[in-house]
Amino acid sequence: MNNFQQKWMYLILLSLIWGSSFILMKKALIGLSPIQVGALRIIITGLFLSIIGFNSLKKIKREQWKYVLYSALLGTLFPSFFFAYAISGIDSSIASILNSLTPFNTLIFGFLVFGITFKKQQLFGILIGLTGTIILILKGAHLNPNQNYWFALLPILSSVGYAFNVNIIKKHLQELSPLAITTGNFIIILVPALVILAFTSFFANFQINTTTTNSLFYITILAIIGTGIAKVMFNKLIQISSPIFSTSVTYLIPIVAVVWGIIDGEKLSSIQLFAGLIILIGVYLVNRKK
What we know:
It is a single chain. This protein is mostly helical and 290 residues long. It has one domain (3-287). It contains 13 helices and no strands. It has helices at 3-28, 34-53, 65-89, 92-98, 102-114, 120-143, 153-172, 178-199, 202-205, 210-240, 243-247, 253-263, 270-287. Helix 1 (3-28) packs antiparallel against helix 10 (210-240), helix 2 (34-53) packs antiparallel against helix 8 and helix 6 (120-143) packs antiparallel against helix 13 (270-287). The model has no long low-confidence stretch (mean pLDDT 86).
């Protein structure tokens, strides 16, 4: 399989896996708090990667560890908690659409911090995408007055973290194996996640019943497949493509997430769907080469 085929295969697989992650978080939140969902996601993934990828840590050079740390914090730790809290306040399908802002932020911060070139057409795409985002949030707040749309800021902040993450990996960790990067990420944040989980009184008060068992089932699937395996695939995608192409997975993710949301009874107005389309058009213009 050549490089072109590989990057499109990873893009499609990741869109299916991560598009399903939002409904898994929503289901896990039925029996767990947002902070417990975020912490358990990291802990289970960290333990899984410790088993399959511990030997790969030897490949990480001393000077690379600081970039692995930055990648862990911005690309994994903060987003894990941000998205768990976001989905506790707004529909999972809306959170997935807001995640589509990642390519915008990749371009913006790539230009400001990492020296990536910037075109007028791409700026136009960013403005279109931001317009769609504002419509999506305002209409959602009107359509769902029982939901707190301030939580919509959390997926947006996560998209900024993802943007920094892909640029860090592309610029500073390009030669490191994807498994080493991912395992290093989770080894670094495993202990902090355990401490955070302990402060929620999870170990003292956790009770085994149907609800909590189901929640643990969903979070385990999310951790192993939607986080551990998917992160390795994504880091590989970053290395064999550009930062902008790799983050383009975020505008395929909502298609899968919205389908899951509708199946689960979430409602989207025609205006919200139109706003999502506006965001995708903006992302397309950002990624267009000519």
